[in-house]
Design brief:
heterodimer; A: 56 residues; B: 139 residues; mainly alpha
Chain lengths: 56, 139
């Protein structure tokens, strides 16, 4: 399993739980879950590029 | 001199409903999603169960470590607290001796984090079920 696959799997399940628990209406839960998932992945991608630039 | 504020005595009905809320909290901790299914939030309960159990199982499959009670390193103690959040999954892993091998590869370290976070997410979902039961959160 690559780091990215692990991070995406982590983001997927964590986003489901955060979506359900942090919002009260089903529609808001879905939107917040998607928001968390995208944010998790964005942080991973941006962080990875930053680390690559620091090492270069 | 301080003034004492007397709280009115609780009725039997209030006490029994508080007990049932605590049962929901405990059930949600022991079995992921059980607190929600007990309140007939079937889909939420199933999704929470699948998410927490999958994260825990994937963590074990990656060779992650299951922490034991300890008084050593602070991170080990925090890891144990996180793992304990998985409720029955944690005790099942301990009984079956899963996750007791040494963490020697990077993927196994990711697995350890999966297991800890599964526990923390389970605590969040149990508290959410409790909030739904006592009316602090609208369903």
């Amino acid at each position: 399993m690559t780091h990215f696959t692990a991070a995406a799997t982590f983001a997927f399940f964590a986003s489901i739980v955060l979506g359900i628990t942090q919002r009260s209406q089903p529609r808001q839960m879905v939107r917040y879950g998607i928001f968390c998932f995208v944010l998790f992945l964005a942080v991973v991608i941006v962080g990875s590029w930053l680390m690559r630039l620091i090492h270069a | 001199m301080g003034t004492r504020v007397q709280t009115p005595p609780k009725s039997n009905e209030q006490e029994s409903s508080e007990k049932s809320h605590l049962v929901i909290l405990l059930a949600g901790w022991l079995i992921p999603g059980a607190g929600h299914t007990m309140q007939r939030y079937w889909l939420r309960g199933v999704l929470l169960f699948l998410s927490v159990v999958s994260m825990f199982a994937i963590g074990l499959a990656m060779g992650g470590k299951v922490y034991h009670p300890n008084t050593g390193d602070l991170l080990e103690m925090l890891g144990f607290a996180g793992d304990l959040g998985s409720g029955s999954l944690y005790w099942l892993a301990r009984l079956a001796d899963w996750g007791s091998g040494p963490v020697q590869i990077t993927v196994a370290d990711y697995g350890t984090k999966f297991i800890v976070v599964a526990g923390l997410l389970n605590i969040i979902s149990a508290v959410d079920a409790y909030s739904l039961a006592n009316g602090r959160k609208r369903g």
